[in-house]
Each structure stands twice: as C-alpha cells, then as structure tokens.
Inverse folding.
C-alpha cells in the first residue's frame, strides 16, 4: 500500500509539473543570471562573463524538472553590449532548448545612473513524447496523435537601471506565445505558451568594510497565473564568501552559498525546500548549481 501511495503521489506531482510547464523555470540565483530574462543585462559588466547554471527539482524522481543554462555577455563598444543565452529544459514528457541573442545599448543619464535598453531575438526547439502520457494514465486530444517537434522564433525586450548601490530591471523575454501542450482535467491538449514579465530590484547595504548585505526581490507575472514573488537576502563577506536565504511567497524557502575561488571565478549552490509537501515520502526539494567566470 505504501508503494502504491508513493507511485500515486509521484504521478500527481508530475502532472502538476506538467501543468506548470508552460511557465519558464525559476532560479534561486536569479540576480546573477539575469540574461535569461532581461536582454538589457548583457554588457552591464565591464568585462566578459560566462555563467553556467543547473537546477534539478524533485531529486531522484524520474521525469522531474531539470534545467541547464549557459550565458555569455560582454561589452563590445562604448555603449553596446552583446550576449548569448542557452536554456535546456526537461519536464515530464516535454523537452525544449531555447537559444537567444541579446543586444543592449547604454545610456548614461548622469554620474550616478546608467540605463541599459535591450532586445532579445530567440528560437525555441520544442518536443513532447505524447506516447509517454499513457505511462501516467493521462488521456490526450486526438490532434496530438501526430504531434511533431517544432521550432519557433521569438523576441523580447528589457530595461535595466543601474546605480552603485541598487538596480531595477523590467523585462518580457518572450513576447510571442507559440503552441505547446497543456493538461486539463487529466487530459493533454494543444495550447499556447504564456507570456512572462519580470520586475527585479536590488539594494546593497554596506554594513562595514568587509560585510555587505545584498537584498533583492523578483516579481514574475505570467498570464492567467498567480503573481510569483521572490525575496532574497545575501551576506557578502568581502566578495570572497557569500551566504543567504531566499523565500518564494507561499511556495518555497531556499538557502544558498557562494565562493570566490579565485579572481573572477565564482561557484554557488542553493537548496530549495518546497512548502507544498502533500506526500511526505516524496523528496520535493530542489538543488541548484551556479558558476560564473569573469574574463
């Protein structure tokens, strides 16, 4: 009976993830990999940056969400920045790879404020193993019998306001809404992706010579979904060692740690515990790895 309950719980959980798959993945290290959501962030650093990310949700459960990201950005002229963002996302029966090219333009408002405006041109390769729906006891619309993988272009916009002590970011990385699967009442149907909008802000409090408190928050709006809110606080000990916590309103609580291995080389790890644990036997925690190399 215990095994039956566990299988049932996993199935229900994966179905829930399938329903949420129309939403792009969320990252605890959102402050450090903002190229994913805002093209204006490309080139905001004075040097070239390579960022790698890995997020695994529901560790040990087959079919649970996994995301890998690779980001590169650099200033190429006095006021121009370019970047590349690659995201591979696997959830339940879905698999997609998103590749984007970012362009940003810098406007120096005054000595204290700099505004970056960005454009994102992207393409998404999307596939779904509809035969796998049978494994989880889900029905499907007849039109899905001949479902084929597809590639769709997209475009996004963003703005990034930078100050020495704080920043504000507003973006919509995908303005178009291509087709993809959706679950309704235990059956899979062809639907459309949902438009995402992100508002991110952060403020750094200098506590003493070697200690800074970095605070940030991200509001994520998705069509026809509740507003998602992340609140993060990180203690920076002289840029060599960082640790902090992050809270996603009514969803999850995270702990994170970062190390400056050498000049320009950072690694980090975050552990996220879900606040929605309906079946205690299922590990619904998430693990996230982060690496940044500044060149």
């Amino acid at each position: 009976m215990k095994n039956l309950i566990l299988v049932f719980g996993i199935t229900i959980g994966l179905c829930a993830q399938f329903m949420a798959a129309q939403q792009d993945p969320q990252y605890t290290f959102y402050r450090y990999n903002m190229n994913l959501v805002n093209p204006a962030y490309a080139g905001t650093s004075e040097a070239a940056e390579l960022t790698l990310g890995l997020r695994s949700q529901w560790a040990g459960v087959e079919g649970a969400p996994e995301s890998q990201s690779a980001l590169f950005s650099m200033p190429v002229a006095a006021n121009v920045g370019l970047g590349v963002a690659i995201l591979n996302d696997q959830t339940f029966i879905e698999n997609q790879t998103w590749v984007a090219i970012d362009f940003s333009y810098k406007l120096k408002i005054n000595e204290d404020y700099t505004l970056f405006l960005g454009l994102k041109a992207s393409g998404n390769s999307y596939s779904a193993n509809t035969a796998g729906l049978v494994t989880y006891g889900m029905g499907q619309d007849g039109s899905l019998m001949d479902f084929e993988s597809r590639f769709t272009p997209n475009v996004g916009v963003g703005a990034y306001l930078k100050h020495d002590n704080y920043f504000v970011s507003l973006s919509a990385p995908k303005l178009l809404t291509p087709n993809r699967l959706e679950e309704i009442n235990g059956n899979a149907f062809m639907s459309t992706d949902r438009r995402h909008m992100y508002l991110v802000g952060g403020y750094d409090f200098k506590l003493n010579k070697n200690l800074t408190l970095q605070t940030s928050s991200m509001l994520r709006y998705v069509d026809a979904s509740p507003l998602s809110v992340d609140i993060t606080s990180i203690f920076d000990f002289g840029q060599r060692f960082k640790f902090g916590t992050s809270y996603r309103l009514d969803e999850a609580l995270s702990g994170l740690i970062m190390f400056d291995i050498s000049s320009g080389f950072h690694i980090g790890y975050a552990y996220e515990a879900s606040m929605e644990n309906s079946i205690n036997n299922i590990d619904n925690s998430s693990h996230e790895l982060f690496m940044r190399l500044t060149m």
